[in-house]
Amino acid sequence: MNESFVERRRFFRHPSSVPVECRVDGHNDFYPHEMRDVSYGGIAFESNRPYELGDIVELRYPTLAHPEVVRGMIVWTVEAENDEGDTHINGLSFSDASAHYHGRIVEQICYIEDYRRAQREQHGRELSSHEAAAEWITANAAEFPS
User: Fold this and answer.
1) Helix (H, G, I), strand (E, B) or coil at 21
2) Cβ(127)–Cβ(119) under 8 Å?
3) Are residues 65 and 111 both part of a single domain?
4) How many Cα atoms are found within 13 Å in the side-chain-facing hemisphere of 40?
5) Pair (128, 106) in one structural domain
6) What is the reported pTM?
7) pLDDT digits (tens, 9 = 90+) for 14-48
């Protein structure tokens, strides 16, 4: 088994479709993408173009109560077809040393996804990840420790 596969599987992944915005280090524009899953070590996200292995990427979560930019490196990328054309799934490994910060992001995303699922199952409400994040943050962000 190659080392990059082992590295990708070191942390438990939490499925999520929370919006993310990414830009390659040194570029000006952030581009919107959708997260597929998140772990303590990184995220996988969909894009309409592949990122290059080794790209240093700045990432932000526009719907979360964490406005800071997170840095990471693209460690894998695969092409996946869907009904809307080609999609690329990119794996980003967090590169800065703030494990606590990343843990809080993962925890907040899990709470939001749980809220979204509960709204669907208990109230029949279909919320997008963006809508669920906005509602959950409005109701809970003040009590969510940073």
Assistant:
1) strand
2) yes
3) no
4) 9
5) yes
6) 0.70
7) 667 778 899 999 999 999 998 888 877 888 999 98
Domain identity same for 17 and 63 = yes
Model confidence over 40-53: pLDDT tens digits? 788 899 998 889 99
Range of the domain at 139: 101-143
Number of Cβ atoms within 10 Å of the Cβ of 26? 7
Asked if residue 81 and residue 18 are part of one domain, the reply reads: yes
Average of pLDDT values for 79-102? 76
- Statement to judge: residues 19 and 78 lie in one domain: yes
> Given the structure tokens 């799934």, which residue do they identify?
89
Pairing of strands 42-47, 85-94: antiparallel
Counting the structural domains of the chain, the total is: 2
The CATH number that applies at residue 63 is 2.40.10.220
Residue type, 54: G
Specify which residues 141 forms β-bridges with: none
Query: For residue 136, with 0-12 CB atoms within 10 Å meaning exposed, 13-18 middle and 19 or more buried, which class applies?
Result: buried
Q: Is the pLDDT of residue 99 over 90?
A: no
